[in-house]
Amino acid sequence: MLNIIRAHDKMAPMKHSYWNQVKRPMKTAVLKTIFVVMFGLAMSVSSANEIDDLDTSHLQRMGFAVESVRESSIQGLYEVITNQGLIYVSRDGQQLMSGRIYDITGPQPENLSDITLNSMRRDNLAEQADSAIEFKAKNEKYVVSVFTDPTCGYCRQLHQQMDSYLDAGITIRYYAWPRSGLQGSAFNQLNAIWCATDPKDAMTRAKSDKSIQQGNCVTPVQEHYELGQKFGVRGTPALVLADGRMLPGYLPPSRLVQELNK
User: Can you give the residue ranges of the Disulphide bond isomerase DsbC/G N-terminal domain (predicted)?
Assistant: First the structure.
């Protein structure tokens, strides 16, 4: 399903994330829902071409920071990667769609939007890998990126089973995602963890309600948080697999291995 918003010249700037706005009635935009049927439609080579002439002024006014624009598989509709994730925009830049596009020409519907999102997550995590706190498996078979918050109960449960993940060949890379945003206890704890002399030990102590020394350094916590927002993280833990798929919530080691082998 796709949600459509038509941009109007007199629309006031959005004060909150677009994703929160589309979940409730909007007074200054027209919200419609359509089902996209892509009969006989195949993606061409030209659909991967980047576009540099799209009018993004309406998007900027709504709080979007545009990172890339490409033609989508639907004529006249552009695929736009922003700081708030993937959206679709009309050629004139005046209509915006959120949701997923499916190709239904095969035996099973294919989620074309997820293909784009998974690729984006893979690329972004590759760029951020050095800033993660890594618990590395000796016989590594898989790498799972985890957006975490030390005050989150399920994050603590996952961490308590770290040895089981490692024994299963799963390397865990932690990224910071304070659920309360860029302030408060979780934010401060995450900054202290990344500033610690031994961040792995600090992570373990924080998730066991033990004190950690408050450091003073430049951390990637804000960058990780914004990355999570772009990925669509809505809570912790959020697991991103090597192929870019994102799994919301805690999974015990055996269940996670099943997902990794799909």
Answer: 60-106
